[in-house]
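Practice set, problem 2.
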Amino acid sequence: MENYFTIFCYQCRAFKNQTISLVMNILIVDWKLENEFFLENELRQKNIEYKIFGIPNYTIEDRKSKIGSLKLYFKYFKLAYTAIKNSEKNDVIICWNFTTSLACGYLCRILHKRRIILALNIIAHQVGKLKEIARKIFFSPVVSMKRYFLTVNSSIYINSYSERFNISTEKFFVLNDAIHTHEDTLQNTDEGYVFTGGEAQRDWDTFFSTCNKLPEINFVCIARKKNYDQTLITPKNVKLLFDTDQDIFNEYMKKSRMVVLPLKSRLPCGLIILLQAAMMKKPIIATQTPSIENYITNGENGYLVELGNSDDLAEKIKDLYFNEELQFRFTTQLFEFVHKNHSPKQYTKNLLEIIAAIKLNVK
């Protein structure tokens, strides 16, 4: 349940035949432990200079309650101000967090600063009609800026976001999430239970219905309490935990036999957990969504199930749980696939190409 809130600022210079050279002036703003953010390591290997700023007074407790989340929004604005203050005219501010990109946009308007803003992997799940209208009004002053751009995890999302928030499709780029480490450094163990967990947008109704259909199998679930429906009845074969530390979360996942991602929406969610599980060489069953399909091909390196279909999920859990040969095939093929196609190196290359394209087309 880890999130990075990152801002990069950089300048590019176009030369003849449209070759792009990066001026060594990059700011990276993030909360993290030193040397543990994959993009920082990649930039260092490319000898690109950077500085790091942290979210002011960040604490994981801010993500565990609604009041904490409200405090976090104020910290996003302070973070955005820091980025704008430490950047120059026409620098590119790349926001790992969509909320921070909105803060940057508003501050650029208020302070009359000329910056290019790139919001990485916009995620805005559908809400009620009135909230959706309020969002559209709130987003509009920023997303309408000529120097505001976004990435999505799949091209399928572009038209949806464009229509919902009146954003030109020309502002979108496709950028798939990457694994956060180069090597598989996590010991693979199997204590026989099925694991699921994550920050939000988990379909607990469907998942618990599935668990009730499989009494012979034990499950461990870790949820964010503020997003959890407390009226749900926990099945007897489920161990339910809330708001664990990241190390405990990883430990439970590491000791599981397999990982299930029952998702509540077709919009991007569950990708951080999916990639962690892939690195741990855990077989994965996930709800079929456009972003999940970037990584899992049904029956080849994992199983995909229909949204909200507990029968389909129960059948595939049972099939995979007792089949060691299939588990090995799924984990081996997924591990190799993400290393080849979604490595930190490939992600960084794709990101730099997007920035170069933006700089060539923005005057």
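Problem 2, part (b): a different protein.
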Amino acid sequence: MIEKILRLLPIYIILSFIRYFIIIIQFPFSYIRSKIIRRNIYKINDYNDQHKYILVYVGFQKKLTISCINLLQTAKENGAYIILASNYPNVSKENFTNFCDVFLESANIGRCFSMYKMATQYIIDNNLFKFENKKIIYSNDSVFFIKKNLSNEISKLLNNKYDLITSVENFDEQSRYHASSWFFSLDYNVFKNQKVNNFWNRFFEINNRFYNIRHGEVALSKVLLMNNFKISSSFNLENLINSEDFCIENIRYFSTKIETDYIENRYNHGSNKNSFKNFFYLNFHLVPLMQSANLFLLKFNNFPFIKKDLFWRSNTPLQSIRLLEKILSLSSNSEYWFEIETYFLNRGRLENRNILIKILVFLGVR
């Protein structure tokens, strides 16, 4: 095992260097693009003190999907002022403006955090925090939103005890904490802090996944932690471990990597004393929560999110899509299941793609 790691280590170092080199190359092109391409803002409704919070939704899509409509309708029912940001070129804005109060239009200048920045600047420039004790919920289209229990998840993000609330917390390969960027909230107090505003000002809009995670998700979480803001998550590892349904009998709802490693761990040592919960807890760094236990959360915790890279990046086999279909039981909404199924089957899995695609994904440009 060590020999294999040492053999592959130079390749990883070289690719990591190339990864940063690609970002450097992208900078001037992204800067020129940001200056040339026009960004449009359409205000449909005014913001007032009757709105309970602000929802920012970012999508890279030509038209609204059922998943997106699920979120926007639920948010509107819960008193949200909705800022919808599209990062897709030449969209039909009439299709979007029916579901939002403000529509921001850009043309593939950056990824989700670039549009978060655009929306945040709009909020600050238009003094939308003139009504205090409000929160902003940031969301994007990297998950499918299931309407059942979605209202409850929104309510969790509106807890005034915390400044940052994320649906699921993450730790990267260096065990650095960062909030998941696909569904989190920030309190209005956060924007009174100059260092937080400096973060948004210096964040550069570039179409690179690695850059957006490292200098978006991780960097924002770091700024908030360093300035002693209160953070929380609506679901974390402890919640999972303490679930009554978390047991070896339900292992099929977890990543196959968890199952394979657990079986090897049990039988290589000739003992069954290791509990499944302890093993999962000690080896959680193997796979992120949403990739290791997304199916479990859907089945036993009424989790209203399906990560779109559930099969693409994780060790969950594509055949588990039938298990997903059974869990969702969307027979009353066959059109929505078709949307989900079509997406996953068309995308497939990263491990089955050619080496060029894998390299481009690693570099963050695809």
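Answer key, part (b): The radius of gyration is 21 Å. The longest helix spans residues 2-36.
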